[in-house]
Amino acid sequence: MAQTTDQWTTEKLLDWMTQSLESHEVDSPRVLAEMLLTEVYGGNRIDLYANAQRVATSDEREQLRTLIARAMKHEPVQYILGKSLFFGHEFLVNQSTLIPRSCTEVLVMQAIEHCKNLIHTPRIADIGTGSGCIGLTLAKQLKDVSVTLTDISTDALTLAQKNAEILGVSELLTFAQGDGLEPLTGPFDVLCSNPPYIPSSEMDELAPNVKNWEPDLALHGGKDGLDVIRPLLEQSHKYLSENGCLLVEVSPSITAEIKALLTSISTLQDGVILKDQFGDERFLRVYKS
Predict the structure, then answer these.
(1) What Rg do the C-alpha atoms of the chain give, in angstroms?
(2) Global pTM?
(3) First-to-last CA distance in the chain?
């Protein structure tokens, strides 16, 4: 920023930020520039255009330099800002967990639909909860529910607990540290999970903002992508109530393998692969036999 202070209007800052991000091949550079400038200024993104000639202070320009430097290294904006939206709620995020994604909202909606048919208080387990976005959203939406959230990472559970306090649902929750199904005591009406499912062969193909920043522990599903999903399918019947539902987010590239695996598991039935809002095969829904 070599120009004089009075030249750094909102309009010129947005142009400079967008060009800087474009030069480093960062996705959606204009939107990202708007988000970062809004973080520094406060208000809403529309305010940037309503006050296009507002001049940034030296402190604001220094903050922007720091944020842009991080963004040009492909650090996800959610980590830069420390927050992410999911199902209309804001969640704290950090590098101990995956960033909540809108496609996962389909899993939440499926769980809600299943619980609507129950005549008792639903019991739900969110396995590998990360930021807590799935389990906490279900607690927030259903209200009369008991949700157990598990994760192998203590840092992830700490973050999920903070998000629970912010959403005001802590009294509906139980937190348990452990691997997969191990920390659970059933039965549950719904088991849901967004587990690591990227096959080894696809890890290097991930976008830099994912591969270089999001935790490998939450991404890599082993050679075939099924290291965590396989035991979920094989053992979930032990933790599900009668007609209980298992919902798992998966990679579209491994749905054929999942369907083949299901044919060998007699404890589950009526398995289907559901699509996300982008038309990708993204979720497994199956019931206890």
Answers:
(1) 21
(2) 0.91
(3) 64
